[in-house]
Amino acid sequence: MTPANRSSVCPRLLLLWDIDRTLVYTGHTDRLVYREAFAALVGRPARVLPAKGTGRTVPRAVEELLRVNGVPEAEVHGLAEEMVAQVPERQAAHLDHMRAHGYVLAGARRAVRAVADRPDVAAGVVTGNLRRSAELKLRAFALDGDVETAVGGYSSDDPHRPHLVAVAQRRAGERYGTVFTRDTTVIVGDSLEDVHTGVEGGARVVAVASGTTAAADLAAAGADSVLEDLRDVGALLDAVGAWIPGGFSA
């Protein structure tokens, strides 16, 4: 998906949006999907579900789900692959539930639009979601037109989240014919995993305390900037553009 207003100007900055609890809150839909998939594959209900708001990739969350619910280790890998394959289809079947119980977070719609309107920024995704799941969530809340999901890194690419930065940088490089580095790549996300992804994977991090992690903890983990939320679009653009020589173009 390519923002309709993207011009021929070569972007100087790659901005990678996290999705869950940064742009949208999807209620309990993902946990409903995990419950259904677990019961279908294991034949009994799950007693314990993965912690909320951690930013962990879907493959890692599914493996944890199986282990903490007593699935023998020898069966975990195979069942995890089957469960991961089911997740997008089950999410697609529950889009009405997602829309009914979820919402776009404060300021997120304006923030995504403001970034998409800048020809000097390529707006993609780095997320613990599978690619199809990420596209479903963005489309469910009408954010897909302003985020270039072809430029992104997803847990369907690699379950180790820091590796996804290089995936997104490569895709953006191919798309725009330029090279994006740590100094020209910024992750905007809400969790410690988002911060660790940037620090280890090779990107700056603008953390947003819109999830389950306090602003002080995000800063202590190594975020370059921390915002309370996305309502102040000017503050976001200032934080994101801080590493461009001379700042954003007018």
H/E element order: EEHHHHEHEHEHEHEHEH
Strand content: 5-15%
Question: What best-fitting shape do the alpha-carbon axes yield?
Answer: globular
Uncertain spans: none
- For the secondary structure, the number of strands is 8
Helical content (DSSP H or I, runs of 4+): 40-55%
Give the number of helices: 10
Spatial order of strands in the largest sheet: 5-4-1-6-7-8
The main sheet comes to: 6 strands, parallel
Average pLDDT level: 93
Taking all Cα atoms into account, the compactness measure Rg is: 18 Å
First and last CA, distance? 26 Å
Q: Which class of secondary structure composition applies to the elements? A: alpha/beta
Account of the 3D structure:
It is a single chain. The chain is an alpha/beta fold. It contains ten helices and eight strands. It has helices spanning about 30-40, 60-70, 75-95, 95-100, 110-115, 130-140, 165-175, 190-200, 215-220, 235-240; strands spanning about 15, 25, 105, 120-125, 150-155, 185-190, 205-210, 225. Helix 6 (about 130-140) links the parallel strand 4 (about 120-125) and strand 5. It is globular and about 60 Å long. The chain starts with 12 loop residues before the first strand and ends in a 10-residue tail after the last helix. About 45% of the residues are buried.
